[in-house]
């Protein structure tokens, strides 16, 4: 990923987390607002939108992962139930890993 795209993604992540913190409702307008952080057209808009929506939902539940790179690299098909299971397992793994790291830092 080039530096400009990386900065755009970081800005979108900050917006998504801030919107989650303020209790915003997730809708297409909100999601579209996060996308203006990128140059158009882009070839991974669906994947990026899904990823930003995931970050928003996690943040709304008070979950902030140490790193999102591994999850962002997962490719899922909407019509494949096994892909959804794999994604959920990965999110669970990374959530627990983040919590273990936070607990070890606190002790």
From TrEMBL:
<protein>
    <submittedName>
        <fullName>Fic family protein</fullName>
    </submittedName>
</protein>
<dbReference type="InterPro" id="IPR036597">
    <property type="entry name" value="Fido-like_dom_sf"/>
</dbReference>
<dbReference type="InterPro" id="IPR003812">
    <property type="entry name" value="Fido"/>
</dbReference>
<feature type="domain" description="Fido">
    <location>
        <begin position="1"/>
        <end position="104"/>
    </location>
</feature>
């Amino acid at each position: 990923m080039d530096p400009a795209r990386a900065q755009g993604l970081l800005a979108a992540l900050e917006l998504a987390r801030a919107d989650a913190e303020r209790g915003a409702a997730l809708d297409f307008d909100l999601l579209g607002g996060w996308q203006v952080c990128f140059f158009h057209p882009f070839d991974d808009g669906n994947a990026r939108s899904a990823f930003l929506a995931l970050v928003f939902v996690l943040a709304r539940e008070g979950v902030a992962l140490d790193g999102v790179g591994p999850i962002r690299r997962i490719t899922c098909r909407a019509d494949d139930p096994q892909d959804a299971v794999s994604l959920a397992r990965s999110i669970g793994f990374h959530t627990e890993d983040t919590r273990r790291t936070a607990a070890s830092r606190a002790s």
